[in-house]
Design a protein that fits this description.
The protein has 11 helices and no strands. With about 240 residues, it is mainly alpha-helical. The chain has one domain (about 1-240).
C-alpha cells in the first residue's frame, strides 16, 4: 500500500514537472506489487480525466480533425484487441511485455537520431500506429512508446503535441473502460482505488510544477529513465532467470 501511494505521488510530481509519464511509472511498479490487471484498472480514472482536461485546455491547437479521428478510432480498435489479450495471456508473458515495452521506450528516448516524420507520411501511418498503440494500451496499459514516439517524430509544437496525444489517450480510455467492465475486471474496490489514485496524482502535480521551475527538466527525465530501466531489468530477472 505504501509503495503504491509513493509511486502514484512520484508519478504526479513527474507529470507536474514534465507533463507526462504517469503510466510508464505506475504500471511497472504496480505490476510487481500486485498484477497487471490491477495496475491498468487503477489508472483508468487518472488517464481518462486528466487527459480529457488537457484535450479541452489545448483544443485550439489540435491536429486536423480527420487525422485525430483515424488516430482515435484505430486506437479504440487496438484497445479492444489488447484487452482480449490481457485476459487470455498468462501473467508472466504480460509482465515480460511490460518490461520490453519500457526498454523500447528507453531506446527511443536515448536514440541520438533526430527523426522527422512528414505530415503526408504520418497521415498514411496514423491508422496502423494508432492500432498498435491501442493494442499496447489494452494489453499492458502503456501506449506511449508507440503513440508518443509517433507524434514526437512529427515535431509538433508543444501545445499541439499535448492536446493531440491527450485526445488519443482519452479516446482509448473511453473504449478501455467498458471493455474491462464487460470482462468483470473492474470491481468496486478497484474503482475506489482508481479514484484514490486520481486524488493522489492530482495533489502531487502542483509540487511537480514548482520543482520543475527550480530543477532541470532533464534531471527529472534522467531519474525516471534510470528507475524504469531498473524496474524493467528486475521484471525480466524475476520472470526469466528466477523461474
Amino acid at each position: 500500500m505504501i509503495l503504491s501511494i509513493l509511486t502514484l505521488a512520484f508519478a504526479g510530481i513527474v507529470k507536474g514537472a514534465i507533463g507526462s509519464g504517469v503510466p510508464l511509472i505506475v504500471i511497472p511498479i504496480l505490476t510487481m506489487a500486485y498484477d497487471i490487471q490491477t495496475a491498468i484498472v487503477v489508472l483508468l480514472l487518472p488517464n481518462l480525466l486528466n487527459n480529457a482536461w488537457q484535450t479541452w485546455h489545448y483544443r485550439r491547437h489540435l491536429l486536423p480533425t480527420r487525422f485525430l479521428v483515424y488516430f482515435a478510432l484505430s486506437g479504440g480498435i487496438g484497445v479492444a484487441l489488447g484487452t482480449w489479450a490481457l485476459v487470455r495471456i498468462d501473467e508472466a508473458t504480460l509482465s515480460i511485455a511490460v518490461a520490453l515495452t519500457i526498454l523500447c521506450y528507453l531506446t527511443l528516448r536515448l536514440s541520438k537520431r533526430k527523426a522527422y516524420l512528414k505530415h503526408s507520411l504520418a497521415e498514411r501511418l496514423v491508422f496502423p500506429v494508432g492500432l498498435c498503440g491501442g493494442v499496447l494500451q489494452g494489453a499492458v496499459g502503456m501506449s506511449g512508446p508507440i503513440s508518443v514516439a509517433f507524434l514526437n517524430f512529427m515535431r509538433l509544437e508543444r501545445r499541439a503535441f499535448i492536446g493531440s496525444i491527450s485526445t488519443f489517450f482519452t479516446a482509448i480510455t473511453v473504449v478501455q473502460l467498458p471493455a474491462l467492465m464487460s470482462l468483470g475486471i473492474v470491481t468496486w474496490p478497484l474503482a475506489v482505488s482508481s479514484a484514490g489514485a486520481l486524488l493522489i496524482i492530482s495533489a502531487a502535480m502542483p509540487l511537480g510544477g514548482r520543482l520543475g521551475q527550480r530543477l532541470s527538466l532533464e534531471w527529472f527525465d534522467k531519474v525516471v529513465m534510470l528507475m524504469l530501466f531498473a524496474v524493467a531489468i528486475k521484471i525480466i530477472a524475476e520472470e526469466l532467470l528466477l523461474t
